[in-house]
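Bench log, entry 3. Co-assembly request; chain sequences pasted below exactly as received.
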Amino acid sequence: MELGIQPDYMKILKLDDEECRRRLEFFELTPDDFQRLTSLRAFAERWTQEITEGLYELLMKHPESRSFFPDEATLARVKRLQNAYFLHLFSGTYDLAYVRDRLRVGSAHERIGMPPKLYLGAYRRYLALIHEKLRNHFKGNETEAVKAIETIRKIIFFDMAIAIDTYIAAYLETMTRHQAAIRELSTPVIKVYDRILLLPIVGTVDTQRANQIMETVLVQVVEQQAKVIIIDIAGVPVVDTKVADHILQTTAAVQLLGAQTVLTGISAAVARTVVQLGVELTRVETRAKLSEGIEVALSIIGKKISSRKNADAESED
Amino acid sequence: MPSGGIPILRIGHTLLATIQLDLHDTVVDAFQSDVLEEMERTGADGLIIDISALESVDSYVARMLSNTGKMAKLMGAETVIVGMRPAVAATLVRMGYFMTGIRTALSLEEGLEIQASRSKDGRRSEIP
Amino acid sequence: MSFSANSGVVAESWEIRIEKEADIIAVRQLVRELTREHKFDQFVAAALTTAASELSRNVWVHAKSGVARIGVLRGERIGLELSFVDKGPGIADLQKALAGGYSTANSLGLGLSGTKRLVDEFHIETETGLGTTIVIRKWKKDF
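Structure output for the full assembly:
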């Protein structure tokens, strides 16, 4: 597990004072609850170890969860952390710092790969254990017991929400990184010859992708000082007005720069659709086959492909 | 010969103007009149405007470039705009602004090539 | 790829009065500076700078005087919010101006439809004889 910089989950989840306040309100945590929790501090200190043991009894019983605690040292360490976690529930202050701490705990579990089902299952057990201890603690005073259980439930659910959020934030992070990689792979501009570029477009082209394609094309044309760029659309499944417009916009921009576009991979279906839709592709060189497009591009730069027989006969150097 | 800050050089039969600052009315007016006067004085029949220093081109500048091209054309000169940046081309087409009647090239070298390869139908005189 | 729409609070802002042509350049330069400082890519930067230029020029050409407010939006992503307020003649046929098509090749076009295509959000309020307020927003790309 690399010691990279952890993404800022507080930022990704937009957890600021305002959001914190909103959550406390939604979970109906009131100053009464905070007071009750503080007053139960002694209770927590008395029972935390037993409750933690009860929790890990469940976790060690099932092979899936057991795998996260491979040795005694790890087990001892997490039990210590669990105790600290429990006591923190009764700290009395439930502000941004509290949330940040819970986030840290949640993201630690996400990082080691513990799936949400185990995490939530553990919380369930935890709540049951606390419930039982509270009943005993308030023996005889059913009203107080009920209030205490309700308060604990609120704060535990509050914590669980944050725990789930860390999983979501982590997945979002991963997806964003994957998306960036996919985007990079999706616009491969290839130099096929001096001053001739080729861009094969494969897959559906939505507006966002079309914009990204245009920008990549323009940057490459300038960077490579290309005279021609061949854009092949044989791999684009649907060419409707929107897609055609995007392609046109790109060819117009390329022309503005002072270069030319050759559009290839025009299938019979696309040719029909384009004309029927009234899209004007007359100012762009178009061909059905990529090979023809390459020949057109070469002629634009004053070159052509000739067969070897003749070349040998002319005895070039 | 400076024209409110836009340097104009002569390369053979071609004038080269490099735009490097933010353009506004007085600069544009001075530039256009200086270019045309220089064209008249030297008999240059080509103009290259280098906009590689411009990170953005709004409709005002685009119009100015088009108009300068039209003015030069009236005097028998062809204009080539060179060095347009990718972001400038993208912004112009996205705005829907197409610079009509103006030729463009990727680089100064290409611009000069274009000017050189135009048929000169006898207007050429001995200019060092 | 996020659960909420773009939003943000204007964290820092500047105000530039538009009263002479040089002010258009001042607005443009400030916007350019901000795009550099916050590392916007060249395409978003050019769009913002151009839009700022277009809208400032509109204020100067049509209303002769007005004010531009430039703010940095800090939310999920960083963006810029530009607003242009004038007490000019207002736009008589807003629908027509927005439908545009192309910004005109002649000097008196408003170029609103073109500018609109450059930004993520475009809000306009105008009343003949009272003036015009335009607010635009554009965010940094998140990839």
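The two ends of chain A are 58 Å apart (CA to CA). DSSP finds 14 helices and five strands in chain A.
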